[in-house]
Amino acid sequence: EVQLQASGGGLVQAGGSLRLSCEASGSIFDEWAIGWFRQAPGKEREAVQCISNRDGSTYYTELVKGRFTISSDSAKNTVYLQMNSLNVEDTAVYYCAAALPVGSNWYEWLWDYWGQGTLVTVSS
């Protein structure tokens, strides 16, 4: 069974930084993509950033360009999301998910497995 464990959320002031972690079960790590998504109160879930462990390709949305960085540590089966220059609009529950990297649009891949979410709150 595939399991994802997200952690690292918390309260931070605007302009600050946080690093989220997503630990994945070993059976999927090397061939799958791990993505981060977020859902703010009253809003739909949106894609944030993704990394394909198959070839190291990374993908992101314009909302986080230049501020967030995704990385992968295969020895720890963990994907990280480094978030810098946070603003109040980044407040959300952040989820990590796993998908086979098949298709042209990463946010439309079949994200079959999801972690439990970690809350990020950015204060002004």
The major sheet is characterized as: 7 strands, mixed
Compute the separation of the termini in Å: 41 Å
Radius of gyration: 13 Å
How many DSSP helices? Answer: 1
Q: Uncertain segments of ≥5 residues (pLDDT<50)?
A: none
Q: What sort of overall outline do the alpha carbons produce when their principal axes are compared?
A: globular
Strand percentage lies at: over 45%
Number of strands: 11
Nearest-integer average pLDDT? 93
Q: List the helices and strands in order.
A: EEEHEEEEEEEE
**Which structural class matches the secondary elements?**
mainly beta
Structure explained in plain terms:
The structure is a single chain. The chain is built from one helix and eleven strands. The chain has 124 residues and is mainly beta. The strands form two sheets. Strands 2, 4, 5, 6, 9, 10 and 11 form a seven-stranded mixed β-sheet that branches. A four-stranded antiparallel β-sheet has the order 1-3-8-7. Strand 5 (46-52) and strand 6 form a beta hairpin. It starts with a strand and ends with a strand.
Write a brief structural summary.
The protein is mainly beta and 124 residues long. Helices cover 3% and strands 50% of the residues. The strands form two sheets. Strands 2, 4, 5, 6, 9, 10 and 11 form a seven-stranded mixed beta sheet that branches. It has a four-stranded antiparallel beta sheet with strand order 1-3-8-7.
Task: Using brief descriptors, characterize the structure shown.
mainly beta, 50% strand, 124 residues
What's the helix and strand layout?
Layout: E1 4-7, E2 10-13, E3 18-24, H1 26-29, E4 33-39, E5 46-52, E6 58-60, E7 68-73, E8 78-83, E9 92-99, E10 111-114, E11 118-123
Parallel strand pairs: 2-11
Antiparallel strand pairs: 1-3, 3-8, 4-5, 4-9, 5-6, 7-8, 9-10, 9-11
